[in-house]
Amino acid sequence: MMKHPNRYAARLRFLIVMGFLGVFVSGCGGSMGTLENERADSIEAFDEDLDVFYKGADDPGIWRVALGDGSKEKLFDKKYSLIDVSLARDIWVFNDSDLNFYMQRPGDRNPEKFKAFEGLLGQAAIAPDASRVALTRIRHLDGPTNEMGDSRIYFVDLNDLKITKIETPIRSWMTQLSWSRDGRSLIVGTFDQELWRVDPSSGASTEVADPQELVGQYHPKAGGSAQTTCPGEGGATLVQSEWGADEGIALELADGTSSPLVTISGRERGFHDYQATVSTFFFTPSCKNVVFAYDTRVWIVSVETLLAYEITAGRYPFLL
Question: Which SUPFAM superfamilies does the entry link to (predicted)?
């Protein structure tokens, strides 16, 4: 049983209400400003041959755009929000606004809904070998309706779809779930800012005191392969220019110096406008370019020339 069930229910209600208010009032006055970077003539100028995925703006849904030629493809309907995808891109897991769990495997025409998690899905993560999916639920099926969290972790076998579970000593609401890179353990983050390493075969769990112990151990989930720091000597880190990236983003070097990369001018915030000006940004694997989202558009900018190009109408870009 949870120690303070009402506390978790109250926190969840608060987060939902604040999220709604943030969306509702963010458009009350204010301006997104102007992107000052000079524009490239075409996407070919960035010399990238990879796919970027994003949430459509004009036509909602999950989309793929090829940076090589700018071609686009709609992958899934607007009702689905992507949680994770296998390395081979043949198994996809989603949720929806009602916290239902869906999965699409090779040969499926549409994502399949799993009623065992109907309205209760918390987190999900596909194992590195794509043998199963680990899931959490936001509360016990047989618990009080205001009791948040479920100390169990569930598994869906991707061969026969059989569901199994393990018990853990974790009593706080599980808000993050990832596999280790070797697939031998699960990494769990909680609403109370705890970190746990869990044995997926037994449920034996160890609380991690220092988050640095887990650096490099996560198996990247959907979007997790994006990086805001270029590796290697002299690598740069992407940082926000002013609160919420109101003046864009900058490159911060190892010696502490920084230089503008994306420049925004004239940003004015309206009443209760808390949304980030540049909401998502990351290096491409080559570190030659940076993909970012600004004003319901997905953009790319060259680290060397600072030339920018509008890729497509969309939000929340990510890499797989």
Answer: DPP6 N-terminal domain-like
- Which DSSP letter does residue 111 get? P
- CA distances, 143 to each of 138, 146, 278 (Å): 11, 8, 41
Going edge to edge, which strands form the sheet with 237-240? 34-35, 258-265, 248-252, 237-240
Residue 238's alpha-carbon distances to 46, 226, 254, in angstroms, are: 18, 12, 11
In Å, how far from its chain's centre is CA 41? 30
Locate tokens 């081979």: which residue?
A: 88
Average pLDDT, 10 consecutive residues per value, the chain (320 residues): 40 41 49 93 94 89 93 88 87 89 85 86 91 85 56 92 93 89 91 91 90 71 73 78 85 88 89 80 92 95 96 90
**Measuring CA to CA, which residue among 288, 294, 303, 319 is closest to residue 311?**
294
Burial 84-109 (b: 16+ CB within 10 A, else e): bbbeeeebbbbbbeeebbbbbbeeee
Strand order in the sheet with 92-95: 81-85, 92-95, 101-104, 112-114
User: What residue type is assigned to position 192 of the chain?
Assistant: D
Ordered structural domains, the chain, with CATH: 5-25+88-127+129-214 (2.130.10.10), 32-46+226-318 (no CATH)
- Of the candidates 62, 135, 54, 151, the one whose C-alpha atom is nearest the C-alpha of residue 99 is 135
- Going by C-beta distance under 8 Å and a sequence separation of 6 or more, which residues neighbour residue 54? 62, 63, 65, 293, 298, 312, 314, 315, 316, 317, 318
